[in-house]
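1st attempt posting a full record on here, be nice pls
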Amino acid sequence: MWEAFLRFIEDRKLAREKVLLAVSGGIDSMVMLHLFIRSEIRIGVAHCNFGLRGGESDDDEAFVRMCCKRNRLPVYSRKLDAMKVSEKEGISIQMAARTLRYDYFEKLRKRYGYQKVATAHHLDDAAETMLLNLVRGAGVAGMHGIVPVRGALIRPMLFATRKDIRSFARREKIEWREDRSNRKTHYRRNLVRRKVMPVLAEINPSVLEAFRLHGEIAMDTGHLLAEYVELLRKKIVIRKGNELRIDTRKLRSHAGAPTLLFELIRSYGFNRSVCEDIYRSLDGPPGKIFLSGDYRILRDRTHLLLARRKVSGREEHVIGADQHHIDTSHGTFSIRKLALTSDMKKNIVTGRLGDPNVAWLDMARLKFPLHLRKWEKGDTFRPLGMRGKMKLSDFFINNKYSVTRKAATWLLVSGGSIAWVTGDRIDDRFKVTAATQNCLEVIFEAQ
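the predicted structure (as tokens):
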């Protein structure tokens, strides 16, 4: 482990000067701390106490402080309220904690003159990230997993597996704190860790080495692809004023044109599914518009015209007819079309499958592409079971929506009409009836 650590940080030139270590007290970060102490590289330790496990969180902080005192290391620790940020911003606690943690590390790095911040991500973490990116359809850019260096952030433990780290900790008698939440399968990463990876290891006992090799190949492939795309961008894309024009005839003359289009416009917030919708539209009449959070693309006769949207910066997503997955700032949408059996239809119509985070909508009444957006002044819809329309603002008041909940609520819109107030009520006009043959099932999983 020791020789492999030195070789890894030397080969990748990760840490030659003053490094701030992110130490939680868990086994991974404590082994990293032990290795850095032995290396004689100048280090300091940063710890975040989110208070999410009550007294255990305070014990973790005390443990890290005691270890640093014993080794005469500077330690910086702060209590951070991830719960408050989660409620205020309408994001998951995990996302809030991550943002707070890295913001805190960066402030410490700049204030106390550290060149790098080191986290204890290892090879298992990288493999799990690759799998999660794969099922999200992340493409080449997401298939290298966790990289060793990103700006001032380094991951010096990516050479080691979880098993390597545990064996080394026991052999060296390194103390650490256990986080019981790591044993839960509620979160997607822990589900991959506890259920998926063991099955893959049965198929290939060297699966982690295979992921490591795949990550390196994916990273190299990504660099080659980026260079090639930039060469083609000069031939296909021209700027006219504040607008970019993509020549569709030149675009379609290249092999892998849909992927090329994605690479040309993904930095403007367009995901792969929307790019596929855009590419399919090239065989249709001009005039169709596609939106990302900040940009819009207009399908002209010979060009795709890309410009910044004239909106207040609100997030918006477009759902194509063949789209199955949407990631948003407040959660994930899974979408599938269902041919209804009589039993399914009966259960949906009678409300026996009631779940506020699942909507079943009559396919015959939907107009694609659908849109996901936040509420706007003047919005109306017809709540399920009502005959007349209601202002959405009144619906929020009647159902005691907080300001935070209103800001985090997505609206699924079809043809300009609200089909579903996510997590609460569908519009009566889009409900499944006895005459419905096919329905769209939309599941929302809040983050």
